[in-house]
Request: fold
Amino acid sequence: MSRHRIIVLGGGYTGIVAAGRLARRIREDEASVTLVTGNAVRDERMRWHQLAAGQRYPLLSIADALSGSGVGLTIGRVERIDLAGHAVVLAGGEELRYDSLVVALGSVIDVGPVPGVHEHAHSLTDVASIEAAAQTLAGLADDARVTVIGGGLTGIELATEIAESHPRLRITIASSRVAGHWLSAPARRHLARAFDRLGIDSEVGRVARVDEDAVIMADGRELPSALTFWAGGFRANPLLAAAGLDVDERGRARVDATFRSLSHRDVWVIGDAARVPGPDGVPLKMGCRTGALMALAAPQRIAEELAGATAAPFAGRYFAECISLGRHDALLQWLTPDGRPTDRIVTGRAARFVKEYVHRGNLFVARHPGPYSPVRRAHVPAQAEGRREMIES
Ligand SMILES: Cc1cc2nc3c(=O)[nH]c(=O)nc-3n(C[C@H](O)[C@H](O)[C@H](O)COP(=O)(O)OP(=O)(O)OC[C@H]3O[C@@H](n4cnc5c(N)ncnc54)[C@H](O)[C@@H]3O)c2cc1C
Reply:
């Protein structure tokens, strides 16, 4: 009997945790789990605003994190997913065959249709380009104006981090709605105080164009900008749509409540790449706060389904979101289960502590996938016999 080959794509926030936990839930003599990812160290996307501001932080070796978990590791850039051929094609042409695929390839910054963004704005898309932007930033003259376009979570974290690390520069955050507009009134007040303290100017309005040295607003205002960052939102990794998975308007694979692709039943998708039904059927938002829950919940469900059982549906809900405001302040916004902000917030060092705990908590689970407790096929109901074949192929 050959072992069922499970490939997990993407060693980021959700993929490492999911791969480790999946391997602990599957009998080693029946199935193998291999994580395929582009870099030997984890991309710390949630810290990329720190990288842009010129900071360094410890990196996680993926091989070390997975050591002892039973997960195989292949470092390589995925060029294409061949769903019909059950293969993942790497840069250089190597093909890796799978029987089941778990996609955790995350998202990319959505550069949108605004003219000049591609040519003149930096975005937090990969380590090399962020490091290049950080160098340019460090070389700017005193009082030079830096503009961050986008008043969402990433734009706020980026603007505050740069303002704190480079107090000699002048930072503007430009966005169509006031930065942090979705937060509660107490949270917005705290944000306004943080912007004041850090000297960040807010410009509200639609950005029409980005030039080499200016941001042009739709109402004609011209904001001088020696360096411009674009933080206008995320899109799922384009490899999913290119493969032919059923995706939504943001490129996220449509999945059911067990993370299984609606169009390809041998594919599971988690994290930013997945459109997962949330409370009242509204899809969960992209983010580590939702991805963390998926990475914990998916492995058991995948193992159960591969063993022929019917997995319980995942009931995703929200708790809180935590926005860093430089190294000394943060904003913890409590949310209702369906994601609306409440008036409960935590700020300052206590919120900073929570933010660090989120980072370190994920590292801890990545390194400690839990005890070896494979889903036992003896528990599989008789009517699922047909699907049991999958794991025996
Ligand atoms: C600056 C910044 C700050 C953020 N802060 C927050 C926050 O405060 N709260 C929050 O909820 N969310 C935050 N996010 C979003 C958060 O980082 C993502 O939601 C989270 O990382 C998604 O996890 P994931 O596993 O789906 O994808 P990722 O963590 O992005 O992992 C995807 C993995 O796939 C790999 N990969 C991608 N393409 C390929 C390829 N072709 N071949 C091989 N490997 C590939 C990548 O290298 C990466 O390892 C932030 C994002 C940014 C950029």
